[in-house]
Structures are given as C-alpha cells and as structure tokens.
Specification:
Blueprint: H1 2-9, H2 19-31, H3 38-41, H4 43-47, H5 49-53, H6 60-87, H7 92-126, H8 134-174, H9 180-200, H10 209-231, H11 239-244
Helix pairs in contact: 2-6, 2-10, 6-7, 7-8, 8-9, 9-10
Length: 272
C-alpha cells in the first residue's frame, strides 16, 4: 500500500512537470541579450565607414559583434521552438505564428550581419588592391551601413512587437507564468511599435535615447521571463497541465472528441 501511494505521487514530486523545457527556454531567452555590446562594437564602422574601409581602426569588434548577432538569431528561433510543444496546447495557430515570426526575425538579422561582413571584405580584399576606386568603396560602404540600419529596424525592433504580442497572449491565457509578464508585453509591444513608426518617418534615430527608452519594457519582459523560467519554471497549476492530466483546457490541442462507442444493434424479431 505504501509503495503504491509513493508511485502515484511520484509524477508530481518535482512540482513542475516540464521543468527542463522551461529551463532551456529561459537560458535561450537570456542568450538573446548577448548582442547588446554591438552598439559600441559597430560604432567605428557606422560612424566612420569610409575611413574604416580604407584601413582605420580594428576589425575585431565587428567580427565579435557579427558573431553575437548570429547567436541572438539562433537563440531567438530556439525560444519559439522549445516553447512550441507547450504553447500549442493553448492555441496552436498563435504558437506557430510565434515560430514563424522568430524565423523571419532571424533571417533579417542575418541580412544585417552579411552587410557588415561585406564591409570587412571591402576593407581586407579590395581597398588595398591596385587600382581600387576609393570613392566607390566609401559609397558602397555607406550603402551597406544603410542596409544594416534598415534590417535592424525590421528585425530587432519591429519583429519583437509581433513576437511578444503572440507570446504575451499565450502566456496570459495559459497562466504558465505570473500575469505580470504578459501584461508587461501588452504595454511594451505597442510602445515599441510607436517608436518604430517614429524612426521610420525620421523623427529620431534608432540608437537615440528615446528609442532605447521605448524598447525598455519589451527588454524587461524578455529578460525577466528568461530569469523566471530558469529559476521558477512553469506554473504547475496551469490549465495546460491540468489538460495533460485528463481535463482538457479550452483552446488546447487536446480538445479532441472521444471516439463514439458502437451501439449494439437491436435484434429484429423474425417475421412469421
């Protein structure tokens, strides 16, 4: 009898049934912040691209910045993929939308990285060659910096609006984490969108203090969520896990009707 009771309680002994998934997702969310130093690492290129292409300064910072942005892109995809099996229980369409938005975000990040690596190629392989047109190199460099700035606006400023609105909705409905997190996303995403629109129409630059202030709530949401998932994990009382125990939650992927039992045929009396 004692052994039976212990066995029955063991699945919930650790509290959260998906602790490992939550921890991995949290670590990946924290990894998306490793590119913050790029604001300083890229400054010599973005502010003085002409002199940089012609040999001024070091290219090491650009290489480290590009590598960190690759990590951010891959970690961003990882957050959506790791959370997908859990979030689809609430709403599979929204969970798939989050994965798609993350993929698009990473694709645009990689375009920006390619533009900066192209500047390095101009510096190392073209600028020092005989007969190189310095004026054309500088013009091309300014064009590549413009490409990076545009893709940065779309990838690391606009796409988080879509990602965090979808994630905030899924977290709010599922109660996987405290409601303060999705509410912060609901506040931060529209604020960041308004800032992106202002940047798009030239009101201020994407690295200005106003832009940084507008991005702060979204950054706080994602960083705080990452820490919470690493330290606390998912809420074991979430309706998604109650659905797993046999009581499907509304809107989850477990809402599949049970197969109908075959009704025995009523015997028919033979006619006389």
């Amino acid at each position: 009898m004692t052994a039976t009771a212990h066995t029955a309680a063991s699945p919930r002994a650790t509290g959260d049934p998906m602790r490992r998934t939550a921890r991995i997702a949290g670590v990946l969310y924290l990894l998306t912040f490793v590119s913050i130093p790029t604001l300083g690492l890229y400054k010599p290129v973005k502010d003085h691209v002409g002199t940089f292409i012609l040999g001024a300064g070091s290219s090491t910072g650009v290489l480290w910045g590009a590598a960190s942005e690759v990590v951010v892109g891959l970690a961003g995809i990882g957050t959506a993929v790791v959370l997908f099996p859990v979030l689809k229980r609430q709403n599979e369409t929204a969970a798939l939308g989050l994965v798609t938005a993350r993929l698009l975000e990473t694709g645009l990040i990689f375009v920006g990285v390619i533009s900066l690596l192209s500047i390095l190629t101009l510096r190392t392989d073209v600028a020092g060659s005989a007969g190189a047109d310095r004026g054309a190199l500088v013009t091309t460099g300014h064009g590549l910096v413009a490409v990076y700035n545009s893709t940065f606006l779309l990838s690391q400023s606009l796409m988080p609006v879509a990602c965090d609105l979808l994630l905030g909705y899924l977290l709010y409905r599922s109660a996987l984490v405290p409601r303060a997190f999705p509410l912060l996303a609901f506040v931060g995403a529209p604020l960041l969108l308004a800032s992106d629109i202002a940047i798009f129409f030239g009101a201020y630059d994407n690295v200005s203090p106003l832009a940084g202030l507008a991005a702060l709530p979204v950054a706080a949401f994602e960083f705080g969520l990452g820490l919470w998932l690493v330290v606390k994990g998912f809420n074991p009382e979430s309706p998604l896990f109650r659905a797993d125990a046999g009581s499907p939650s509304r809107g989850s992927s477990f809402d599949v009707p049970a197969p109908r039992q075959a009704t025995p045929a009523t015997p028919v009396a033979p006619s006389v």
